[in-house]
Automatic annotation (TrEMBL):
Residues 386-485 are annotated as: Disordered. Keywords: Coiled coil, Cytoplasm, Microtubule, Nucleus, Phosphoprotein. This is 65-kDa microtubule-associated protein 8. Residues 410-419, 475-485 have a biased composition (Polar residues). InterPro entries: CHAD_dom_sf (IPR038186), MAP65_Ase1_PRC1 (IPR007145). It is found in: Cytoplasm; Nucleus. The gene is MAP65-8. The lineage of its organism: Eukaryota, Viridiplantae, Streptophyta, Embryophyta, Tracheophyta. Residues 135-166 form a coiled coil. GO terms for biological process: microtubule cytoskeleton organization. One of its GO terms (cellular component) is nucleus. Its main location: cytoplasm. Residues 420-445 have a biased composition (Low complexity).
Length: 485
């Protein structure tokens, strides 16, 4: 450099200015790169845009080399790639959320804003928070929506199956089915196949649940009708065969299951049909015994008629229908003579039935063997009573013979008839009571078979014995009166 100092300064000053200009330009470049690095880093870290530290950058002027600038630019490119990756993830998550929300009938904007306000496009914020926490929350939100979608789909699966079953059970018309056909279609659908907006909205589920509840109530009413119809059929079987009716508690428990909705229509039909089938089987096993019981009851009726016929003094008189009664009396005697063998056969068959079934044979809730034993007891009592009557007549004839020998004359026919009528009148109440005891205690009043019946039976035997004793004593004292001095 030649010349004066001023001349040298004039030569250096342009170069200096050029260098200062380049330095400022380099500083600006470094500052811009660092600001972009800071801004992108803030987005990645989730710092708010209003944070002043994002733009507060101080450049180290001790190193303004291109190498340093290249280092910053390389870092900026890496951050740009990371930001793009995060934005792609963000877009993916938000797209999933929007699709799921649309399918579920929800507002996707409200869901996204709840994750972070900056994610809403209409918020006006330039920087979106793409931090790890935000992406994680978006991912969890998408997963929760997927789970909600699966839950609703499973619920619609059940509702669709329930609707199809109820439609089949109730014979629902095609027009009524069309209102909820879209719900029935969910029975074969998968979550991946469902993307139509609003197809899994909560109001669709609510309406389907209301329809299922309505049909369930209608089903319950029809099930009750079926139940009562089957119950009447079952009770008719028990009534016809005089079997023991199941306790009401069993029927009440079935009815409670129907009211609570815990019993299916098919289960009800199977349960009631099983009971009816069992009742028919039990009734079939009782047929032979029931036929003999009917014969026994009919024979007892004939026996009572024959007793009343024998007490009729005008049975041999010539009147209309007398010959028919005489023929019936002959048939009744044949039937009555077969009663002991019939009762013995009935006892044997009943014992055999009880041994095979290992339970007591009940006829209108009363043990049949007890009824038969009671009948035999009354029959023996009646035979004893007849024997006493024959003995009384023998004593009576002997006394009359002695009177004839003493007085030398026989009683007139009219006196004899009066005497016979007095005997018949004395014996008829006894026979009548015996017949009533048999019919009432063994057949018609079987339900009163208990301790009271046993006590009444003992008292009747005692009263009958005392009655016969007093009657005989009275008769003997009457007949022996004229012989006393």
């Amino acid at each position: 450099m030649a010349g004066t100092l001023k001349e040298q300064l004039d030569v250096i000053t342009p170069a200096l200015r050029e260098m200062q200009k380049k330095k400022q330009q380099r500083l600006n470049e470094l500052r811009d790169v660092q600001v972009q690095i800071r801004r992108i880093s803030a987005e990645i870290e989730g710092l708010p845009e209003s944070d002043g530290s994002v733009l507060d950058v101080s450049v180290d002027e001790s190193d303004l080399s291109l190498k340093k600038l290249d280092e910053y630019r390389t870092e900026l490119q890496r951050l740009h790639r990371e930001k793009n990756d995060r934005l792609m993830k963000l877009e993916e998550y938000t797209s999933v959320v929007r699709d799921l929300a649309a399918t579920l009938g929800m507002n996707s904007s409200e869901i996204i804003v709840k994750v972070h306000p900056s994610l809403n496009d209409s918020s006006g914020q330039k920087l979106k928070n793409i931090g790890d926490k935000i992406l994680e929350r978006l991912d969890k939100t998408a997963e929760s929506l997927k789970e909600e979608k699966q839950r609703r789909l499973e619920k619609l699966h059940k509702l669709g199956k329930a609707l199809k079953n109820l439609w089949s059970l109730m014979d629902t018309s095609i027009e009524d089915q069309r209102l909820f056909s879209h719900v029935a279609d969910f029975t074969s659908a998968t979550a991946a196949n469902i993307s139509k907006p609003g197809s899994l909205a909560i109001d669709i589920i609510d309406k389907a649940e209301a329809e299922v509840e309505r049909l369930d109530q209608l089903k319950a009413r029809k099930m009750k009708e079926v139940f009562f119809k089957k119950q009447m059929e079952l009770e008719e079987i028990y009534k016809q065969t005089h079997m023991e009716i199941p306790p009401q508690s069993e029927m009440d428990s079935i009815l409670n299951l129907i009211n609570s909705g815990e019993m299916d229509h098919a289960d009800l039909i199977r349960s009631m049909d099983a009971q009816i089938s069992q009742a028919k089987e039990d009734a079939s096993s009782r047929n032979d015994i029931m036929e003999k019981i009917e014969r026994w009851i009919t024979s007892c009726d004939e026996e009572r008629w024959l007793e009343e016929y024998n007490r009729d003094e005008n049975r041999y008189s010539v009147s209309r229908g007398a010959h028919r009664n005489l023929k019936r009396a002959e048939r009744a005697r044949i039937t009555v003579n077969k009663i002991p063998a019939l009762v013995d056969s009935l006892i044997a068959k009943t014992k055999s039935w009880e041994e095979q079934r290992e339970k007591v044979f009940l006829y209108d809730d009363i043990p049949l063997l007890a009824m038969l034993e009671e009948y035999n007891l009354f029959r023996r009592e009646k035979e004893e009573e007849k024997q006493k009557q024959r003995e009384k007549k023998r004593v009576q004839g002997k006394v009359m013979a002695e009177q004839e020998n003493i007085f030398g004359s026989r009683p007139s026919t009219s006196n004899r008839s009066v005497w016979n009528r007095s005997l018949n009148s004395n014996s008829s109440p006894m026979n009548r009571r015996s017949s009533q005891q048999i019919s009432s205690n063994s057949i018609n009043s079987a339900s009163k078979y208990n301790r009271t019946t046993q006590r009444r039976k003992t008292m009747k035997r005692t009263n009958n014995a005392s009655y016969l004793k007093d009657d005989a004593a009275s008769l003997i004292s009457t007949l022996s009166g004229p012989l006393s001095p």
